[in-house]
Amino acid sequence: MEKEEILEIFRQAGAFLEGHFLLTSGLHSPFYIEKFKILQFPRYVEILCGEIIRHFSGEKIDVVVGPAVGGIILAYEVARQLGVKMAFTEREEGKMVFRRDFQLKKGDRVLIVEDVVTTGASVEEVIKRVEETGSQIVGIGVLVDRSGKKANFSYPFYPLLEIEAQTYSPEECPLCQQKIALQKRGSRYLS
User: What are the distances in angstroms from CA 163 to CA 93, 141, 150?
Assistant: First the structure.
C-alpha cells in the first residue's frame, strides 16, 4: 500500500486535520493527527495493522505489545491477524508497566506497536519493560511517526506514515498572528 493511500484513509476517517493546533509540547502546528478518528473504524484498523504485519512478515512473532491507550487496539488487531498473544503496558505512578498479569517469557519474540510517535518516549518505556523480561524485540510498527526522524530506536522501526508537521513557538506562530483560533485536541484537554 502506497503512503498516499494510507494518508487517504486518515483523511476519510477525519483523522488528518488542518488548522491551528496546540500540541502536547506546547508548540503550535497547522496539522494534527486525531488517532482515535482512525481507531474508531475497525475496517481501517484491520487494513493498517495488515500493513504493519506485511512489513514484519519475515519475522516469527509470539507476542504483540502496545502501550495504553491506542496501542492496545493496535496490539489486539495485529495479534488477532497473526493468531498470537497480545499484551499492553499502562502507566502506574507515572511509569509504563505490565499489569493485569501480563507475562512475557524469556525468548518470546515481540513486536511492539503504537499509534503515533512524537518523541518516542512511550515506546522507549515499553522497550525497557519488554527487555526486562528477557524477550526479544523483532521490531516496532507505528501508524504515524511525527518525530521528524528524531525518534531513534535500537530495533527495526516501521511507520506507515511519516508526517513532519511544522511547529512554532506561541510567540512566533504565524497562525496566531493571523488570529486563527487555536484548537486544543487530545486526551489532555478532554473535560
Answer: 31, 15, 12
Cell of 15: 483523522
pLDDT tens for each residue of 22-50: 987 788 999 888 899 999 999 999 999 99
Domain count along the chain: 1
Q: How far apart are CA 190 and CA 14, in angstroms?
A: 18
Residue 131: domain span: 3-189
Rounded distance between C-alpha atoms, residue 93 and residue 114, angstroms: 21
Q: Output the pLDDT for position 187.
A: 52
Instruction: Answer yes or no: are the C-beta atoms of 30 and 19 closer than 8 Å.
Output: yes
Return the minimum-mean-pLDDT range out of 53-57, 79-83, 89-93, 149-153. Answer: 149-153
List, for residues 158-172, the tens digit of each pLDDT value: 999 998 778 899 999
In degrees and rounded to multiples of 5, residue 143 shows phi and psi of -70, -50
> The C-alpha cell of 35 is what?
488517532
**The CATH number of the domain where 174 resides is what?**
3.40.50.2020
